[in-house]
Amino acid sequence: MPRLWNDTIDAHRRAVRDATLDATAALVAEHGVTSLTMSQIAEKAGIGRATLYKYFPDVEAILVAWHDRQVTHHLHHLREVGERAHSTADKLRAVLHAYARLSRGREGHGTGIAAALHRGEHVVEAHRHLHDFIRDLLTRGAATGELRDDVPAGELADYCLHALEAADDLPSDDAVHRLVGVTLDGLRARP
User: Fold this and answer.
1) Between 20 and 30 A from 69 (CA), which of 4, 15, 77, 145?
2) Ramachandran quadrant class, 169 (left: phi over 0; alpha: psi -120 to 50; beta: rest)
3) How far apart are CA 51 and CA 93, in angstroms?
């Protein structure tokens, strides 16, 4: 097939996929994840149900694709936040604050379909990337003397991620800020 044809087909597939995931996001925000139907998604996306079924076998597959897109967006956001800061310690502080704010915004993730989405392979992979990203920041900070070097960076990355999961239940942004501060206190270089 000619290249233009392939490019046109690929663009159409991306457009259908994006419309489907955008519609799903809007419906989840409006009604939650438990009440979604293929008909609702197709109507909101402006595509036929038959077309939708060509791309996704069921609502669960759409939710996994939508969630994967969300997780990927969050990882890109965390990297961008880290790139804006100057020192390694400032990068780490910015990333931990952003991660804690994202964690706080995960209302309803502990039950039903949302909990299943968070156990998916895409989340495991994203968590590994996030862990490695934070571990690398901790390693650089230890090398420059900004952060502690008496505990392996991988263990400190685990500490950060587990500590900041508590942000999910915090009542305010001030509480999130305090939690990040306590977490950072545990990372300071020892005299």
Assistant:
1) 4
2) alpha
3) 45
Which residues are CB-neighbours of 117 under 8 A, at least 6 positions away?
33, 63, 64, 67, 123
What is the distance between the alpha carbons of residues 93 and 96, in angstroms, rounded to a whole number? 5
State the average pLDDT over residues 19-40.
Answer: 90
> Which domains can be identified in the chain, with CATH numbers?
1-57 (1.10.10.60), 59-191 (1.10.357.10)
pLDDT tens-digit map of 123-134 = 788 889 999 999
Over residues 154-189, the pLDDT tens digits come to 999 999 999 999 998 889 999 999 999 999 999 998
pLDDT attached to residue 114: 57
CA distance linking residue 28 with residue 21, whole number of Å: 10
- Write the DSSP string, 43-97: HHHTS-HHHHHHH-SSHHHHHHHHHHHHHHHHHHHHHHHHHH-SSHHHHHHHHHH
CA distance 122 to 69: 10
Report the C-alpha gap between 67 and 24 in whole angstroms: 10
Distance CA 141, CA 19 (A): 42
**108 pLDDT higher than 50:** no
